[in-house]
Amino acid sequence: MTKTRLEALSDGVIAIVMTILILEFKVPKLESSEGDWVLVKDFIHDLPVVLSYIISFLVLIVWWMSHHQLFHGAEYMDRKTIILNGIFLMFIAFIPYPTALMGEYPSLRFPSILYGIIGLLCGGSYYGLYHHILNKNAGHPFNASGNALSFKNTWLHLTVYIIAIGIAFVSPYISIAVYAAVPIYFIVKKNG
Amino acid sequence: MTKTRLEALSDGVIAIVMTILILEFKVPKLESSEGDWVLVKDFIHDLPVVLSYIISFLVLIVWWMSHHQLFHGAEYMDRKTIILNGIFLMFIAFIPYPTALMGEYPSLRFPSILYGIIGLLCGGSYYGLYHHILNKNAGHPFNASGNALSFKNTWLHLTVYIIAIGIAFVSPYISIAVYAAVPIYFIVKKNG
Amino acid sequence: MTKTRLEALSDGVIAIVMTILILEFKVPKLESSEGDWVLVKDFIHDLPVVLSYIISFLVLIVWWMSHHQLFHGAEYMDRKTIILNGIFLMFIAFIPYPTALMGEYPSLRFPSILYGIIGLLCGGSYYGLYHHILNKNAGHPFNASGNALSFKNTWLHLTVYIIAIGIAFVSPYISIAVYAAVPIYFIVKKNG
Amino acid sequence: MTKTRLEALSDGVIAIVMTILILEFKVPKLESSEGDWVLVKDFIHDLPVVLSYIISFLVLIVWWMSHHQLFHGAEYMDRKTIILNGIFLMFIAFIPYPTALMGEYPSLRFPSILYGIIGLLCGGSYYGLYHHILNKNAGHPFNASGNALSFKNTWLHLTVYIIAIGIAFVSPYISIAVYAAVPIYFIVKKNG
To answer: Which residues neighbour B48 within 8 Å (Cβ) at sequence distance 6 or greater?
Structure first.
């Protein structure tokens, strides 16, 4: 029972974050003399926002997939699971801000650095949640190899994000490319 | 289990998109000398936004109905189902932007073209999801005639949207009429 | 299965509408010389918005309660149920706009009239949904007296709203009082 | 059945409130001559908003945890449960406004006072819901000690909030510290 509602709350938060990401994308106000070309120019000018949105959407798909796999295997939940899951969701809910910032100012360094920091906080809090659920369910028929892989994935995630933050100080564009590459890697690879 | 949460995430995203569509509809700021007639005039001026909202709401009802039918029949889900479903939801989440744009500037061509493109992306990603779920569940007591029909529907959807995009270059109003006709057709016809 | 997802979609839309109602309530921008009293004055000035929000929240609780009761008793669902339910949800999603308008301009007539019209559309579409579900489940152990009552309630709702719209042309404040009285009546009375 | 949908509606509202809290955090508009440092300065300037958001997120985690525990133990639900739960959710949905106000003007007294009042209304309506569910399920194998504890918690919550409102008249910062301490206390303590 606990699990069902905890999953519902998590699905709710992730679904909302996925959807409000795009709200930053505003309809421009045209002068009466302006027409289609102004809309097209505005749209092209906003393409980095769209790209930034797509990156974060893919990131959220991967987080949801990991969360789903983790809770699917788990059987026992407690108070601490609720709290650690809540903290993870809190950092997930932060994602729209650096996403919008990075889309608006892709050439600046601060947006890419902040995006990386939020990503690290998501990864770190997920690691804590993961660790706790594994301990809580130790000895149960939990898919051990899958867990080993997921631990590896979490560390991989954290390491790549730290590197991407470092790169952001030099070139935000390369850093954004790394952020885009992470979810694509997890999406295309065979084993979870 | 996978199916339940995947459906919950999809229901969440579609419910949010349905609801935020109308947020574009803002309360006007009146001068102290202005009264009811300014509100009425503002409301009438915004009627294309309402109409555009209603079209997209009907489109979303049809998408939800198709998604529901597809997952209802399916039994086996995998990693790829999650990803393809996520990409479909991403395009669904794009719908509010061209909806607002089309409501604000119904006489311009770009909004209708963009609305059609997003519709094509929804249709194309749905087709991919459909194809994958059908392959994954091949040989199972899946309603074959329903599936054949749905494939036909998907192709019909894609073809009509391509034509509507073409029409939008000439007359956006006819194009909008086509976008309105598509969900009404799927709603009134007998077999899904 | 159909029922579960249809309920989930409905719960999602109603939960979102309940929550975005209050988003209209904005934090004021203070000048550096201004302090607590400006915030208090702004808050008092916005109290009609809060009141308008509370009315709509109560209305939504009653709608949710009715919807819940209706689907609880029903067993068979079809394509048409999905569509009629979708149309009901569409009018529900319209509620925030007249709510905000009525809160902002409670002394004007148009907001109260529009609020009544949206209420009528919710009531009318609910009546359609109700009628269809009852026909679809005829002969089944459906709580007949409860249904008779609910039909009476729906007609009561529609009649009172038509009267309230008429009153709004004369005095919007009395009309708002009627809108507030309707959900309170359904909440305090014993039998649903 | 009633319970499942009531939980779903509550999870939906709480998930949305958790997520829209952060929407107040807007991307700044830079002049073309401005760069990273303006973004950093803007971010630092907005840190109280982030802090205020984190406090409310923790508060919401604790509310959700309490709600979950309460409904987990309960078996019988009725019309009155729906209504009392709806009123509780209404006050929960108010949380984003004082949160944003407190984040924007942490040195003023009104935001902290209003935050406390909303907290009291959440606590009071939760107490009513709690009381009703306990009466409704009296004599059933409900965890009696857990309930006694939760009653104690509810009273503790109400008392501390009244004190914090009093403190806000003297020092809003100490009051905010108390609001932050409450969820942290409930999160770190062993027994619920």
So the answer is: B102, B103, B104, B106
* Per-residue pLDDT tens digits for A1-42: 578 889 999 999 999 999 988 877 778 888 878 888 899 998
Q: CA-CA distances (angstroms) from residue C61 to C56, C68, C186, D75?
A: 9, 10, 10, 21
- The ranges assigned to domains in chain B are 3-188
pTM: 0.92
Q: Contact, A136 vs A147, CB < 8 A?
A: no
Q: In sequence order, which residues have a C-beta less than 8 Å from that of residue B37 and are 6 or more positions away? A: none
Task: Please state, in angstroms and rounded to a whole number, the distance separating the CA atoms of residues C173 and C168.
Answer: 8
Burial call D12-35: b when 16+ CB within 10 Å, e when fewer: bbbbbbbbbbbbbbebeeeeeeee
C-alpha to C-alpha distances, B120 to A36, B124, B151, nearest whole angstrom = 21, 6, 15
Record the tokens describing residue A106, joined without a space: 């892709």
Residue C68 pLDDT exceeds 80 = yes
D57–chain A nearest CA distance, Å = 7
Provide the ipTM.
0.90
Confidence category of residue C148, pLDDT binned at 50, 70, 90 = low
Question: Which one of D83, D105, D114 has the shortest CB-CB distance to C61?
Answer: D83
At residue C32, φ and ψ (nearest 5 deg) are -65, -25
Smallest Cα distance from A41 to chain B, Å? 11
